[in-house]
Give the backbone structure.
Amino acid sequence: MTTIIQFVIDALTAGSYYALFALGIALIFGIMQLVNFAHGELIMIGGYAVYVFSDMPWPLTIAVAVAVVVLSALLMERLAFRPIRGANPATLLISSFALSFLLQNVGQMIFTTLPKSTDVVPLFTRSVDVGGLTIGWLSIVTIGTTALLLCLLAVFMGRTETGVQMRAAAEDFEMAELCGVRSNRVIATAFGLGGLLAGVGAVLLVGQTGSISIGMGLTPVLFGFTAAAIGGLGSLPGAVVGGYVLGFGSALLQQFLPDGAAGYRDAFLFAGVFALMAFRPGGLFRVAALSPRV
Amino acid sequence: MPNTKRGVRLASIAAVLCGVVVIATFVGTLGGPRTDRATGTALILLLVVVGLKIFIGDSGVFSFGHIAFMGVGAYTTAVVTMSPGQRSFQLPDLPGPLATIEMSGLEAAVLSGAVAALVATVVVAPMLRLSGLTASLATVAILIVFQSVFQNAEMFTRGSSGLILDAATPSVVTLLLWACLSIVVALLFRHSRTGLRLASSREDEVAAKALGVRVWAERGAAFALSAFVVGVAGSLYAQYFGSINPQSFYITLTFTTIAMLVVGGLTSVSGAVLGTLVISVAIELLRTVERGVYIGGWEVPSRSGLAEVGLALVLLVVLLTRPEGLTAGAELEPSTWRDKLRARRPPDPPSPAETSPVPTVIDLPEESR
């Protein structure tokens, strides 16, 4: 029983990370068809912001780090993606690829390739005993924060005017524009929200690994993409479900792969993702607005 | 008749491109051992970029997975060319005949291409249903899967410590011949039946399907062919540098080669050649600047990303100002140059910034329309 609970907690923790990153990617993709590779560098920026501001009391460090990431996301939209808005998805994808590469190397010029380490919140390294079960505080915080953010985002998208406009823009951008939705504002909001999710994800990630490096955004962003693609690119509930599917998949592999094959976890995981894509090309939640119309 | 005409046209394009490559190689080898190295690297990358062009350029589907096939080619070559002594030391657990085979560089290159094409065919089969962006993301999954396999299949790859080859290093002329051969193959493919059908599906998938193009068959063929070329490039990479490790075949190389293709112009072989040339020269210049700081006496490690930053900036600027790439997707065709000179009309959108070393085609419609 305890192993099952332990397993579920591990899976939910991993799934929460993936869901956070996938959601940030899906938000932006839904509205402007941009697969944002540079989302990983937002996570990197978040990590280094935590490192740079780690002298402050920890709530302030976290707040500043998240704010820095949101600001970077807005800047990224304004400087890099606004000029090429509306280009075909492949061009957008390559631009974000270039931007990601640029930011990584600028980061390398500033911070060198040596990884940095820091403890964000002392609590994150401690754990709590519940009925013979050891649960890390970080897991609890990760699962809880993600759940909270998801609820807030759901309320935002469903109940506020901007949220409704964003969903309209994701459905049919041109139509929404004709109906008076301001594209600049909607897209900037999407980037801001994406930045918020990336910032929170970065803080949690640093809390988990304790180390910050230039390439730290790569793995999360790759998992985020695949989670978003599993769920159906552009679908927000899809991204969340995709994230948790990926989390459970990776926890299952961790649990059941024989020792000799443990290193192949990612190979199996992504082969599974590949198979899933091949069998359900539209993802679990197909977005009608994004399928070609004939 | 049209066949002879087409043959002459293709031959003239091939001659121009191979000429450009030969001249660039000659100039590149004038500067001593360091530029020799850069030239060799550029020729191998040219092979990769031309390989990428065969699939990406003609099908319009971006693949981020091809560098995995380059890795497959490189590891194949490493395993089959190693001398017995090295092999029993580096890879003591190789099964069956693999433990004893010893091939020449040329045989290894062909075998590597074939293995890469075979692997690619198996991998691409389930992917052929996918289109556009989902297919691109699926290729990212391919890249990750292969990276994980290279890291973990210690029996064949010795994991992250990599392999050291002890076979003879191929000469620049060998690399040059392979590069020219790949250019010819890419041109022939583009103008073959399959290539033309594939290009039509790139322009309008629905219309192409309505006209009876099976799209999946064409994409599959292009994928296998391009994997062959990239696999050969992997083999040459392994032979030329003498050592490989899994990290060599991951994101950085993927980025560099795709940047070359995009900067040159996706849809033409000329684009692949010019893009490789321009980016290779840019990288070499930036590396010199990087190194200059070292020679000056201060070791400034913070500059170590400079070449990459420059590369990314070049790519971004090209994407922002000229999203179709330097060649705008057209080939360098001698037969059109005279007409172009004669019919030079006052340029409607004046863009003095665009100066290319060769009169590139600017407003010419894609030749196949």
